[in-house]
Amino acid sequence: MLDVLGVRDVIETRGLTKRYRGGQLAVDRLDLSVPAGSVFGFLGPNGSGKTTTIRMLMGLIEPTAGSASLLGRPMPRAARAVLPQVGALIEGPALYGYLSGRENLVRYDSADPTADPRTRRARVTEALDRVGLTAAAGKKAKAYSLGMKQRLGLASALLRPRRLLVLDEPTNGLDPQGMREIRTLIRELAADGTTVFLSSHLLDEIEQVCTHAAVMAQGRLITQGPVAELAAGTRGRLAVTTPDPGEAARVLKELGVTDVVVAEDRVSGELPTGGAEPVDPADLNAALVRAGVRVRAFGQERASLEDAFVALTGEGFDVAG
Ligand SMILES: Nc1ncnc2c1ncn2[C@@H]1O[C@H](COP(=O)(O)OP(=O)(O)OP(=O)(O)O)[C@@H](O)[C@H]1O
Ligand SMILES: [Mg+2]
């Protein structure tokens, strides 16, 4: 799919690297391709380099090496031409605490030389409404909760139509209802043709809203692609429902199934790997039946992005130092 202006990858990085002055290698030779029209999840545990990457994309910090382009234009060189078409929410939006939410947005909008002052009020009202801040619009920003500040930051990114939204942990600080609202909003924006790039350390959030994802660990890209393909590369656990769980567990172990877990009438485990021939689950089912195990249900659980992450990195989804 092409962007309205014919750009295929709205974000592209080649060998993008950031080493902070203290010596910390935060992003290590990143090659990222974000297709136009995608809702792209940038996934990684705390400290994996997401915010650092986003800061480089937006021209806020200089890469140590490598290059980045936004909407087909090199950053930071083309920042002045590109950034008006990109809405961004980056960790801790800068707000004037003594101004109300509405007044903060009016300020943001006034700072944009291409924004028509005559339609400012309407734009601000619309943006407040989209993020569910209408009722709290008159309250001073310093009295906002974390989630309200996050919504206000998002509203500032939505003041005008954008080709690309770059959102760093957009649901950070939101309650479950707020998270759902933001996810719905992201889907609506995507349906309007905006490419949305969002970072998150929440796997299920990415699975719920994203079409594509990239997985980061310790500054390095582990994998990227359509979400369905990332999870499909990983096999889900085998699950058997049976009134004979003990016998089923014994037979499955004998056939090479590992990590067998029995929970009441449900037996699950990892399909055997490593043999020359991949094991056909149908053969396992047949073997259970031959052994006299009464099988009520037999199947493979859908692999989650979390399974994929663990399979790819060999680790849990934890913070690396
Ligand atoms: N200004 C800085 N100076 C030195 N090191 C930094 C700086 N900012 C971040 N780092 C380090 O770079 C690494 C990546 O940090 P970054 O903020 O990009 O991670 P992140 O993926 O956004 O994490 P989180 O999920 O917690 O927001 C971390 O080890 C962090 O300590
Ligand atoms: Mg971050």
TrEMBL record:
Family matches, as InterPro entries: AAA+_ATPase (IPR003593), ABC_transporter-like_ATP-bd (IPR003439), ABC_transporter-like_CS (IPR017871), P-loop_NTPase (IPR027417)
Keyword Hydrolase: no
Entry keyword annotation includes Transport: yes
Pfam families on file: ABC_tran
Domain of life: Bacteria
Keyword annotations from UniProtKB, A to Z: ATP-binding, Nucleotide-binding, Transport
Any one GO molecular-function label of the UniProt entry: ATP hydrolysis activity
All copies of domain ABC transporter, residue ranges: 11-243
Coiled coil: none
Assigned protein family: Belongs to the ABC transporter superfamily.
PANTHER family assigned: ABC TRANSPORTER, ATP-BINDING PROTEIN
UniProt name for this protein: Multidrug ABC transporter ATP-binding protein
Annotated organism of origin: Streptomyces scopuliridis RB72
Organism placement in taxonomy: Bacteria, Bacillati, Actinomycetota, Actinomycetes, Kitasatosporales
